[in-house]
């Protein structure tokens, strides 16, 4: 009897042990499934904070070093061999105006019609001018300020049909231009002055 009871007790113990093992195996996968999730979540949060702290600390150290030593440490000055200094050659573009600018008074009718009548304004009949006519064979005119000697010479030839040997000009203090027109030796200045009506 005792022997049978022992056997039945042993078998019962074995059955109970098998049940416990099966229950433990069933519980283990859930625990395993929960653990990786917790592990995966925890390292991310932990990994971020130290990295941020490290970067901030390293930046602060670098900034402190720059403040102590200075930013431009490796630059080297070029050794100059002469004392001539030139401005750097920069880009120079061609002019591209939005509208064409004209010179002052260049588009007026007076400027366009710059003929002999506008060049020679009137002859002078002062005492000094009369003396020039008599002694130097020279006529004196008041001319346009913009006219040059070549234009004055051409205007005199067209108006009075005379050849000139030399022309001297000056601008008077009142802003007008005076021209001394010396005639060639074969033409008398007195005759031309009579023809013009100065004398």
Q: How would you describe what is shown here?
A:
There is one protein chain. 53% of the residues lie in helices and 13% in strands. The chain is built from six helices and four strands, in the order H-H-H-E-H-E-H-E-E-H. A hairpin with a 5-residue loop joins strand 3 and strand 4. The protein is rod-shaped, with a radius of gyration of 58 Å.
Q: Can you describe this structure in just a few lines?
A:
With 199 residues, the chain is an alpha+beta fold. Helix content is 53%, strand content 13%.
Order of helices and strands: HHHEHEHEEH
Uncertain spans? 1-7
Number of strands: 4
**Rg value:** 58 Å
Share of residues in helices: 40-55%
Global mean pLDDT: 79
Q: How are the strands of the largest sheet arranged?
A: 1-2-4-3
Shape: rod-shaped
How large is the share of residues in beta strands? Answer: 5-15%
List keywords for this structure.
199 residues, alpha+beta, four-stranded antiparallel sheet
């Amino acid at each position: 009897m005792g022997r049978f009871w022992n056997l039945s007790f042993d078998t019962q113990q074995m059955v109970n042990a098998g049940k416990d093992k099966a229950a433990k195996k069933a519980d283990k996968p859930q625990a395993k499934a929960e653990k990786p999730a917790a592990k995966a979540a925890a390292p991310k949060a932990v990994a971020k904070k130290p990295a941020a702290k490290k970067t901030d600390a390293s930046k602060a150290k670098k900034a402190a070093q720059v403040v102590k030593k200075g930013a431009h440490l490796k630059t080297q000055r070029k050794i100059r061999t002469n004392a001539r200094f030139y401005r750097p050659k920069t880009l120079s573009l061609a002019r591209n105006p939005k509208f064409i600018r004209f010179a002052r008074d260049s588009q007026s009718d007076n400027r366009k019609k710059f003929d002999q009548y506008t060049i020679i304004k009137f002859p002078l009949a002062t005492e000094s001018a009369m003396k020039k006519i008599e002694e130097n064979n020279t006529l004196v005119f008041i001319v346009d300020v913009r006219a040059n000697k070549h234009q004055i010479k051409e205007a005199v030839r067209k108006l009075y049909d005379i050849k000139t040997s030399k022309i001297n000009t000056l601008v008077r203090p009142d802003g007008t231009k005076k021209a001394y027109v010396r005639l060639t030796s074969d033409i008398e200045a007195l005759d031309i002055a009579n023809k013009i009506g100065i004398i």
